Amino acid sequence: MSEVRRESERPRDLEGLLQLARRSGGVRMVIAAADEGFALGAAVEAAQLGFVTPILVGTVERIRRTADEVGLDIGGFELVGTSGDAEAAATAVRMAHDGRADLVMKGSLATSVLLRAVLNHEFGLATGGLLSHVAVFEAPGGDRLVLLTDAGVNINPRFAQKMEIIANAVAVAHRLGIVEPKVAVLAAIEKLTLPAMPATLDAEMLRRLGEAGQFDRCLVGGPLSLDAALSPDRSAHKGTTSPVAGDADVLVTPNIETGNTLYKAIVCIAGKEAAGAVVGAKVPVVVPSRADSVRTKLLSIALAAILSGERA
Known about the structure:
Number of helices: 11
Number of strands: 11
Helix content: 40-55%
Radius of gyration: 19 Å
């Protein structure tokens, strides 16, 4: 996933993300425990838009009943019968492992069940690197997309894991046409404050590693508060001198509580749409909340389709 897409192809909003996915030519998407109405609705719409071919795994009777209840035509989709969530997850992941699917999506099962299968040593999708979640939303002003990581996988990442989280997010940014992404390592304030705020030390050290060329084709700034990272006016008022300040493409949070809360504030309070996928495995894995809308799941499928190997 290290390819850098041309700047001219860079989507500037989430509708552009959908358009870019439509140019992917279509990828094979397997849904584990596909008897979930919003996931099925998103799969049907993605298939109609031409960027995925869905494969539905789970209890066939429940999948068909759910489709009937929400008025969806799944007659043209491949159905693979399984019994129970663990078997559905294992079957879906094994299909991707064997090259029969290009991305995996969660249906009605728990994220932990699916990720356990992804990390299985026999048939899983691990590459030896860290899995992390990357979300994509529209920046304030709507002129570009911003990435947020990690809101869904790593609870309290150690320093070395934060390095991998940044590397994963930068790779996603490159695939989206952000040639030299500006990475903001977030903290509460912009100065080293120890021992009260250990996240500021990690941010400072990650910035130094970025300056030393540790990360591929990006600028790293930190510690930066959220407003200093995204608002040119606020960063200027604070006198923040980082080249990332006010124009961040990637937001790196110190832990999952910060990341998950920020993601849900974007969606629930600000009312913005977002896409998200787990990266770092052999194929992208879409693990939306079961409460997420059809639209959110569609956008997440589009992001995963763009990221899925040479087809993207």
